[in-house]
# Entry
Amino acid sequence: MNFWIEDGGIKLNTQLELPENQNGNVPLLILIHGLTGHMEEPHLIALKDALVNEGFGVLRAEMYGHGRSGGRFFDHDLYRWIDNVLAVIDYARKIEGVSDLYLAGHSQGGLTVMMAAGMKREQLKGLIALSPAVMIPDDARNGILLEHTFDKDLVPESIQLDEDHVLSGNYLRIAQSIYPEQVAPNYKGPVLVIQGEADETVPGKVAEDAAKLYEHSELVIIPGDTHCYDYHCDEMVSAAVTWLKKQRDNA
# Structure
């Protein structure tokens, strides 16, 4: 079922899928894509399909400036994304037939859900960070965004990510003001971090440090895999589904 969630006058493209023949309330995973991404990426679809088959509902939402959601990519920033995820959580809590809520995000979405979980800590039963780009804020304070460099003290008015994507300098300014290590640990529930060993975007140490922010975390490293799990997506899916089933059964 496709629909829109409105947040601050912006419509977020959203899709909800529930298991067939559901008996009573079902656990629901909110799933968020990464920078320049969208909800139809193969690794997200694979995870969604496996979870629905295991009796979970999955709510995918596209963030500001991405996919079919409103707003320009140029104008998006981490504040907007965090607010988007908070709005999606608020919506999900009102869905009839849904019980426990879980939250997951990939890359920049992983950073975003870590921040959002620290703010909505009492409303979530579990958190999954897939290749979480937790280094974005600290890198921005050092004049780095992915493979690009800039003057951290004289932030440019825009930065070209690739041939198709340009970001406002305000993205960089806002990133410089965010401190995941101060907010993310407010979430005290179970956390799973999944990282590809050959990730070309998020260094392995970033994922290790992300897992260390939490009291109850597990870190799964997938040998030889990339940022979007291009080679061993089944292993990422298996790790996430196994972990979520364990949380559900122990609830």
Summary: Helices lie at 42-53, 78-92, 108-119, 136-141, 169-176, 180-183, 204-212, 233-250. Residues 111 and 134 are 5 Å apart (CA to CA). The first helix runs from residue 42 to 53.
